[in-house]
């Protein structure tokens, strides 16, 4: 697989040289680094959204469960003084 990639890179380097555009390896590292940083920041933001959603769901279910728990039904509206 690596040999095929090398041949492919060599072939395109030759094509670019024929067109007057010299192949520059230094740009590849910069592009890969930028792509990696973009993906990393995208994943970080998606993870933060997921954590916030999970936190909201826990809060929602905690509130809904406490509203129907027997502990809250001790005092009915009739039991409160007038």
Task: Give the secondary structure arrangement, pairings included.
Layout: H1 2-18, H2 25-67
Proportion of β residues? under 5%
Q: What does the radius of gyration come to?
A: 31 Å
Helix content, binned percent: over 70%
- Per DSSP, the total helix count is 2
Short description:
The protein is mostly helical. 73% of the residues lie in helices and 0% in strands. It has a domain at 12-62.
Please, could you describe this protein's structure?
The protein has two helices and no strands. The chain has helices spanning 2-18, 25-67. The protein is mostly helical. The longest helix is centred in the middle third of the chain and has 43 residues, at 25-67. It has a domain at 12-62.
Question: Keyphrases for this structure?
Answer:
82 residues, single chain, 2 helices, mainly alpha, 73% helix
């Amino acid at each position: 697989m690596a040999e095929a990639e090398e041949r492919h890179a060599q072939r395109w380097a030759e094509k670019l040289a024929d067109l007057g555009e010299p192949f520059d390896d230094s740009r590849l590292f910069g592009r890969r680094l930028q792509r990696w940083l973009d993906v990393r920041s995208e994943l970080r933001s998606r993870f933060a959204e997921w954590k916030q959603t999970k936190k909201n769901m826990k809060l929602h279910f905690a509130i809904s469960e406490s509203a129907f728990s027997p502990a809250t039904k001790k005092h009915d509206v009739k039991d409160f003084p007038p």
